[in-house]
Amino acid sequence: MEQGFELYYREAGQGEPLVLLHGNGESSEYFAAQIEFFARQRRVLAVDTRGHGHSPRGDAPFTLGQFADDLAAFLDARGLHSVDLLGFSDGGNIAVLFALKYPGRVRRLVLNGANIYPAGMKPTVLGQVLLEYAAARLAALFDAKARDRVEMLGLMVHEPHIRPSELGRLDMPVLVIVGERDMISDRHSQLICDSLPQGEIVRLPGDHFVAAGNAAAFNAAVDDFLRR
Q: Which of 23, 88, 132, 204 is the most buried if burial means most Cβ atoms within 10 Å?
């Protein structure tokens, strides 16, 4: 970890720790409804990923693997050895990488709209991301701000690359939760679930952003999973 580098986070509540990881280009603000709900009985920590929200970019590589290492350092600094972890979209991808790299540190895992390789996105969505990435790369030749967008979109274009067989190493209970109109293909979400020793899947009315758009149903499903 770089000298003086610290991730921004929002904390509320007391009890068993629940860590929330947001998606690409977003921040902990995305989880407003989850923070309010789960803080009634848990210690909730919603983290801004490196270069997102209020967290600095720093000098380390801008990769999902680095974000997983950042999370480990964040938890170490707070004396948290094991936590329940909920990741949305890229946050879910980070959560998988974290659980694979740091066995024993995740008690229960919730993956919302995660993908284990870029082609897990629906073809139309991946195609749009590739177009935006190409446009941003062109703009970056003339606009310094566009370089940040290249880096951000690059996470979706180039990462992650997790083999389904690797998920067999995750021996904790895992909830895969997706919107019925998710940008991740249903076949891919089912593949993730089927590759997990203790995986289960819940599909809710809504799109990729079901945690915000259908918060009551999302929170109830996650709460039921965490209480079991």
A: 88
